[in-house]
Backbone:
């Protein structure tokens, strides 16, 4: 745990907002396993070589994001797989696209684990009487499924997805909706806990939030983003520090 701006983090917050992907659980390795499961299924069902699959998927993802912009649907794996199949020279094949999407998310979730200590932190913050919100990109259904799968849905007072907001977090509106649901005012001290630079920028713009960045070890590690107020690698360290500010439950 490293405090970069002690003044921003000395007061007990009125509420705490969390990101989900790559903040409360690791996304990278489960995503790789999920893509491998899809790649294998496409190879057997459609006789497509791995390199062909990778090229088509990469192009499908790029085209979908370019067409849809910073919206929840731009992250939709079903759309990626539909377009990928088309790029492989086939028709849309809805049944196959649906099967690939289910394979992807089933493999990702069964491979994913909450970061050590993440649930303990949520429990203690709830016990301390702090309202908690989850602000996340992607569609509501899959993000709700993750929360239920991990067993952490009960800890959040509200969840805001980019599907509900109509735009990703970088467009600021998800944070505005979360603030309204929590009845926050501009002067309220709020913490945001996330991993991406856009989260730091957006949460500060909308809420003037104090930001705590989850850093990752190994190849997926990131340096501290400009303007972040504190960083941590492990949730137990964050929990121990937070007790000194919010108090023990």
Residues:
């Amino acid at each position: 745990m490293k405090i970069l701006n002690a003044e921003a983090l000395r007061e007990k917050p009125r509420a705490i907002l969390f990101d989900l992907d790559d903040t409360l659980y690791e996304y990278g390795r489960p995503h790789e396993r999920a893509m491998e499961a899809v790649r294998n299924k496409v190879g057997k069902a459609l006789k497509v070589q791995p390199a062909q699959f990778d090229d088509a998927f990469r192009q499908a993802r790029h085209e979908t994001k370019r067409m849809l912009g910073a919206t929840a649907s731009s992250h939709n794996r079903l759309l990626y797989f539909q377009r990928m199949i088309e790029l492989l020279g086939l028709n849309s094949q809805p049944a196959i696209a649906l099967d690939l999407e289910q394979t992807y998310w089933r493999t990702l979730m069964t491979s994913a684990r909450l970061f050590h200590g993440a649930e303990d932190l949520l429990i203690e913050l709830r016990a301390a009487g702090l309202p908690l919100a989850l602000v996340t990109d992607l569609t509501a259904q899959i993000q709700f499924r993750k929360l239920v799968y991990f067993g952490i849905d009960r800890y959040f007072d509200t969840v805001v997805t980019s599907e509900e907001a109509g735009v990703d977090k970088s467009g600021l509106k998800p944070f505005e909706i979360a603030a309204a649901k929590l009845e926050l005012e501009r002067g309220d001290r709020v913490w945001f806990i996330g991993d991406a630079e856009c989260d730091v920028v957006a949460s500060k713009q909308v809420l003037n939030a104090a930001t705590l960045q989850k850093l990752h070890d190994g190849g997926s590690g990131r340096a501290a983003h400009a303007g972040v107020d504190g960083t941590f690698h492990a949730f137990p360290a964050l929990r121990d520090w937070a007790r000194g500010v919010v108090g023990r439950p």
